[in-house]
Amino acid sequence: MNKPNYQQQSALIELKQAYNNGCASALVGAGFSLNVSNKYYLTWNGLLSDLIWSIDRTTLEEAYLNYKNQAANIILNIEEFGKKYVEDRINEIGALEVASKYVHRCNNMHEAIDSYIEKHIPYAEINDEGNVLLSIEGKIIADLHSNCLKLHDLLLSCNRFKSFFTTNYDNLLDLAVSHSMRDFVIVKEGSQFSKIGNRGKIIKIHGSLRAQNEIYGFDSCNKHHYIITAEDYSSYDKSHPAFSSVLRSEMLQGVFCLIGFSGTDPNFRNCIDWLKQIMGAKDKTETKFYLIDMSTAQTPDYLNLFYENNYIKCIKLQDKAVQEQLGLFDNKLRDSLFEKADNERLVQFRQKDSFSSFELLSALFKYIGNEQIDASEIKEVEFSGTGDSSVVFQTPFYENGFSQLEKISIDYNYDTTE
Question: The whole model's pTM is what?
């Protein structure tokens, strides 16, 4: 079992205090959408994969032939090799430069990559039965139960966040608003800021997926519909001054809880660059970002140094001290589990990640929103057909009057970020 990190527990407490004081905003990235469907929603690497195949197909195929000729044993097929090639290519030149290169190859028409995005990210709607329909270019590709929006609903229930910013193009947060009947304004145009008042707001800072026949253009700019290329980022302040001003203002006045990002995400890094321009050489011990990390891997030293140098504290939800702070383990429950160390399966269970990303994020949002998990809701059950022990807990979710209790099963392997 990994040693608990009480500095991360302390960071979680700081975040909650900032939230309680009305000084925190949420910034939501692509990884969060994977909680709805990790098949149809994509990380940055997933989104850019087909694009890189299109740009570098000849080079990629030649590289694979060289790999086959040099390898003693063929370990990877072309698809597996291609996935690694995509990752290496993005790491080499950067995701934003990949997008820029694609636009340049398409006669510098930004519409090319905007169309590409709309062919790879589904538009979500709720049908008369309450299910979530995903479609691409008007064709339905999936029919999902409304339960898929539970984490989005639960996030939006944290109503003391000053704002919900998102770099995501998808309309899942928008849909969760209509699903939960909450009073939020979906901000897609800079002109909307002067009309919001004190209502909750979801701010789509990089554009929002178009419905069928919706007019092209982000924030009254008909040069692009989505912010994705290096040029889009570098010209953002000039092209979208209202969005930039609001984001910068909330950076200076409060803190951000980052959900669905990795520490190397280009959107995340861009926000850091903005902040550094604003704050200059000020005291870097002041925390501005609390990065919610879902990974089980140990953070490399260089990344820890990057966080320290850029106003960031990382909160790893897989850390036992953090889980204890979230209320997932109280002393009574922990003791009752550890007393059974003679149970081989339980020993293995203690050494694994006990909770899935879904469960951890549910606990996080309840903790931040002042809903503590009752230890009595966590109880020992048996795996079907094995007689071995595991743990599940029951949590109330927003459905049918927000009163239904559902049992959440454990998934050790599901992870929402890269």
Answer: 0.81
The DSSP H or E segment spanning 86 is helix 78-93
CA angle in degrees (0–180, nearest 5) for 161-166-168: 155
Beta strands in 296-338 (DSSP E): 312-316
Helix, coil or strand: residue 67: helix
Is residue 126 classed as helix, strand or coil in its secondary structure?
strand
CB 157 within 8 A of CB 366: no
Report how far residue 74's alpha carbon sits from residue 163's, in angstroms, rounded to the nearest whole number. Answer: 51
Burial of 125 (0-12, 13-18, 19+ CB in 10 A): middle
Long-range contacts of the stretch 283-286 (C-beta < 8 A, 24+): 284/308, 284/309, 284/310, 284/311, 286/311
Q: Are 31 and 292 in contact (CB under 8 A)?
A: no
Closest CA to 187 of 243, 239, 253: 243
pLDDT at 393: 31
Spatial separation of the C-alpha atoms in residues 300 and 293, rounded to whole Å: 13
**Cβ pair 156, 184 in contact under 8 A:** yes
Q: Answer for the pair 390, 410: CB distance below 8 angstroms, yes or no.
A: yes
CA distance 46 to 41: 9
Q: What does the pLDDT look like over 3-31, one tens digit per residue?
A: 566 788 999 999 999 999 999 999 999 99
CB proximity list for 167: less than 8 A, separation 6 or greater: 27, 28, 29, 30, 205, 206, 227, 267
b/e sequence 301-318, b meaning 16+ C-beta within 10 Å: eebeebbeebbbbbbbbb
Measuring CA to CA, which residue among 189, 191, 183, 234 is closest to residue 215?
189
**Is 60 exceeded by the pLDDT of residue 406?**
no
Tokens of 409: 């099963």
pLDDT reported for residue 105: 94
Task: Name 406's bridge partners.
Answer: 395
Q: Which residue, 39, 30, 40, is CA-closest to 122?
A: 40
Distance CA 12, CA 326 (A): 9
Q: Quick one: DSSP state of residue 354?
A: -
Pick from 272, 276, 250, 248: which is nearest to 261 by CA? 272
Judge whether 148 and 170 are in contact, CB under 8 Å: no
Residue 236 near residue 9 (C-beta atoms within 8 A): no
